[in-house]
Amino acid sequence: MAKTHLKMTVNGQEVETLAEPRELLIHVLRERLGIKGPHIGCETSHCGACTVDMDGKSVKSCTVFAAQAEGADITTVEGLGDPDNLHVLQEMFREHHGLQCGFCTPGMIIRAHRLLLENPNPSEEDVRFGMAGNLCRCTGYQNIVKAILAAAAEMNAAKEAAQ
Ligand code: FES
Fold first, then answer.
1. Does residue 62 contact residue 42 with C-beta atoms inside 8 Å?
2. What is the CATH number of domain 88-162?
3. 157 pLDDT exceeds 80?
4. What is the ipTM for the molecules in this complex?
5. Which terminus, N or C, of the chain has the lesser number of Cβ atoms within 10 Å?
6. N- to C-terminal Cα distance for the chain?
């Protein structure tokens, strides 16, 4: 099948690739661009393992055609921090044991990042509601919620200190 030329920004870098019209964004990210943070779980828009940020919204990249991401600005978990310089959300997931097998973690963290941008002072209920599209098969939700609330507190304290 003829391939389409695609251009998008991923984690701050302009990237170009070829993809078939039927290809999903998750496959282009992982297989064509080598970005393995977003995982493939259900491929039916239920689990959230494939969550990425696209033009300021959390999307499940298994239900977005790569062609729909033409010109988009995409952030994956790799765009938040790296092993030597963790994002506060990554740090709090580690500190509060917000990961068990780790499979859902990249989707959880990138979704939590958007949630905290939209609501920097969430209640526990807000976090649970905002994260409802991301499933953890280890069912470790308690510590995931704790980690997100702790990250919100850290980020707010840093903002206050900077004022
Ligand atoms: Fe996309 Fe499960 S792999 S929601």
1. yes
2. 1.10.150.120
3. yes
4. 0.96
5. C
6. 55
Structural contact between residues 15 and 78, judged by C-beta atoms closer than 8 angstroms: no
Cα–ligand 1 centroid distance for 45 (angstroms): 5
Kindly tell me the burial class for residue 25, based on how many C-beta atoms sit within 10 Å of its own C-beta (0-12, 13-18, 19 or more).
buried
Q: Which residues line ligand 1 (CB under 6 A)?
A: 40-43, 45-50, 60, 62
Give pLDDT tens digits for 89-100.
999 999 999 999
Q: Residues 115, 118, 124, 126: what is their CA dihedral angle, to the nearest 10 degrees?
A: -100
CATH numeric code, 4-77: 3.10.20.30
119-156 burial code (b ≥16 CB/10 A, e <16): eeebeeebbeebbeebbbeeebbebbbbbbbbbbeebe
Domain map (residue ranges) of the chain = 4-77, 88-162
Per-residue tokens: 6: 């695609």
Region 80-85: mean pLDDT is: 93
